[in-house]
Amino acid sequence: MMKKLPYAGVFFFLFLTQILFAQQKELNGTVTDEMGIPIPGVNVIVENTNRGTQTDFDGNFSLEVTNGEVLTFSYVGYSTQTYTVGAEDAINIQMVEDAAQLDEVLVVGFGTQSKRKVTDNIASISSEEINNVPIPSLQGALTGKAAGVQITQINGKVEGGVKMRIRGISSISSSQEPLYVIDGMPLINDDESVSEAPINPLISLNPNDIESIEILKDASSAAIYGARGTNGVVLITTKQGKSGRTKVSINSSTGWSTATNKLDWLNAEQYIELLSEANANSYGEEDTYYTEEGGGFDQIANGTDWRNLAVDTDWQDYALVEGSVQDHTVSVSGGSEKTQFFISGGYNRTEAIIRGNDLERYSLRSNLDHTISDKFSVGLNLGVSKTHISRIGTDNSFSTPLQAVAQAPISPAYLEGGVIPNNESTIYYNFLMQEYNGDWDSDIFRVLMNSYINYQIIPSLSFRSEFGYDNNGQTEEYFAGSLTESASTNGYADANSVQSDKYNLNNYFTYTKTFKEDYDLEVVAGMSFEESTRKRQFVSGTGFPSDDLQTVESASEITSGTSSRTKYNFLSYFGRATFSLFDKYLMKGSLRYDGSSRFGADNRYGFFPAASAGWIISEEDFLEDSNVISLLKLRGSWGETGNAGIGNFASLGLFGGRAYNQRSALKPVQLGNPDLKWERTTQVDIGLDFGLLSNRISGEIDYYVKKTNDLLLNEPIPGTSGFPSITRNVGSLKNSGFEFVLNTTNIDNDYLNWSTSFNLSTLKNEVTDLPGGDIVAGQNIVRVGETISSFYIVEYAGVDPENGDALFYRNTLNEDGSRDRSTTANYSEAERIIMGSPYPDLMIGLTNNLRFWDFDLSFTFQGEWGASLYNSGGKFQSGNMRYEDNQTVDQLDRWQNPGDITDVPQARLFSTNGQQDSSRYLEESDFIRLRNVAFGYTLPSNVSQKFHVDRLRVYLSAINLLTITDYSGWDPESSYDNLGNSNIQRGITFYSAPPARTITLGFNIDL
């Protein structure tokens, strides 16, 4: 029987309900991250109820609540926040990233992997590190950031080639560059310069578009790329859109550049003194050729009053000038749950610190990802760029600005009225003639595309197909007018066009499954096909009716015309399996079966296996609850990689068309080697990853050994064969070293955050087998037991204090195997010995990041020790006035009287006295460099949002701000750009320009 509620009870219930409803209200709020940027999709839940909502694209939410209720805010990667409802009707919640929740994901070949479970050695650089300081090339952004990676720009030219060496040198004649892969597409990385001076093939890429860069250093990580992994792999991932409101970002900067260093040269008075003395020492005090009326000084001074020092030209100041840089990028990104997009446009203009050299680049990128259904997703990454370069001569040409330092300071650079003197009024060709009467322009048009379709067959199995395309079109036009070096032909012009195309197709399955919650398995298996083609046309002509007509079609005579085309293919099959047991025992194995059209039919395919394992010791019971050790992982890897960086038809005997007695004919041009096979590198790596005190201190320790066998070598053969060389598999070499990385969070509170990253690496390179014996090229040698390309020169012994003669150590072998350390003034009596290496044996990088309130400061130091540089131009620049070239001021310390103690021999004009190739011009190139520094200020979000700006940061940055070195030349990293394809000659400098020191002012805006 149901009882009726008493009237008093009914009144009480209605009264209580009225009170509760009176307390309920609508609460509005906004959820942002630490930078003040709204976060869409945050779960907002009333505790102990089923009421809740999510933030919209602008991070806003609205929810019916009652005073005293507790709200929880949760989002993946952020710490859960709580809020107790009070009197406010609107609130702002700031979410903080939860380091414990975040498990960094690394891009690996054909997929991604949790960093915690990685058993390989992979260095990762994020977009924050790349974009913090505006740098024109992506390689420059990596300098000093990764252990075991050496990155060097050849010289200070804006387009200058960049050498990137990962864990040493693994080849002699074959390619020494890593494989670059952008969004899954292997890049064309061939220098297409018409001259020996290289152009950086990646100069057309905009660093602001990059999200992350992973460097695969050991064989286990690189072997999935098989034939191209010997020199390491650089994986570049561009920025992608994210679901949420549309975000607009603007990065803009303007900077000013100067040379990192200038040398001290003789002024007019010093030059006259030293040249007069050198002439007297060679031809006697009575010889007055230079000082008499109409004599040598009158000619060099072009009739100006040199006796009263009317002209004192600093030619270095004409060559090295103030440069500038502008860099602007605008990007738009966003999307919905199904479609995400990223679009950016960039502009860079760089005026070099070398006169007449500049670069202008336009770039556009569009990345699109779309989910068609629960099964299908597609995407397209497209990048287009146009780069224009105003070029200057190679280091070994008088038209290049830096060789102007050889001119005499008493020679005027200009005459009255601004007319530039002709060749007869300066010792050498005046480079200013080329600047005003000639042009050398290069235009690079590049298209990069990679598309994909992904099909989720079942929850644990997916199929992905990728098609990539890389087009690199480059044209170069050169013109030298009738007033230049080409005066005798009344002008010269040439045009060079290169069209390179690469197509890449990847098809692979990915199977991911967790068994019984403790066993994780991932298997990747597929194939890859790559085809590369190259076409080149070249034509040149002389004799032009006017210097205003500068194309070859205006030439009166076509002097040369050539064209060529070539192609090569790769066909590969690959597989990789990773297995995790109890989330602490890790294993991985990979196989790659590579075929290349470059090798003989019997050796066309190579098999490249790799394996690695890891043990997360910190997950064991005896360490699981440790308050000190956050991570302790032991890992090891082994694998084989290959190298096919040789000519496209190196295994074949080739014939070419030639003219013979005005008739067409065939001529053998290459000796074939059908037994040619893959160069193979086997690498072993053992490493330890550690984290202490909740990972406030973390790092890596690695030791590796790389052994390369069956070296692809252009081996010289007897001239009686009719051929200079043949490509063979001969010899082996070894690289080994330690790597140490330490990351620390020094201070972390509401006011100050300070973190440090330090890396150190050692390198020992040794040639272990060379059946054909020593290979000598210039001042370098390849010899068993020594570092590849070691310096092989006569040892300089100083100056004989009695007569000022240059002395050399004989270094001939005694019967007991020792060297004869006696000295001689007869250069031919001295033997060459090995006296250093062009490669450093110790490298460090140190990066600090500080944030204090709204200010930020970051800087990176880089250092190298153990390498040497040979100044091949020293015999002219610092040759105690052997020639009429101007000299460095240290040549004033020459020997003059018996008993003088000095390293500079007596000055003797046109007479050799110490200018031969010797260790006199070999120096250690150790240095420490403040590679980059940036100081910024971010406007508080509550202020910037009043102007509808999510983030506004202004900054002042600098590149190459400080260099500490004992090296006496222009720069310890600059080297000769005219070595061509020689992989043996290394560590040579010859009028090589220093890099730029650039100071930049810029801002970042997020809307």
UniProtKB/TrEMBL annotation:
Belongs to the TonB-dependent receptor family. It is a multi-pass membrane protein. It holds the Pfam family TonB_dep_Rec_b-barrel. Keywords: Cell outer membrane, Membrane, Receptor, Signal, TonB box, Transmembrane, Transmembrane beta strand, Transport. PROSITE patterns: TONB_DEPENDENT_REC_3. InterPro entries: Beta-barrel_TonB (IPR000531), Beta-barrel_TonB_sf (IPR036942), CarboxyPept-like_regulatory (IPR008969), Plug_dom (IPR012910), Plug_dom_sf (IPR037066), TonB-dep_OMP_SusC/RagA (IPR023996), TonB-dep_OMP_SusC/RagA_CS (IPR023997), TonB-dep_rcpt-like (IPR039426). It is found in: Cell outer membrane. The keyword Transport applies. It comes from Christiangramia sediminis. One of its GO terms (cellular component) is cell outer membrane. This is TonB-dependent receptor. Residues 434-765 form the TonB-dependent receptor-like beta-barrel domain. It comes from the Bacteria. Residues 115-233 form the TonB-dependent receptor plug domain. Residues 1-22 form the signal peptide.
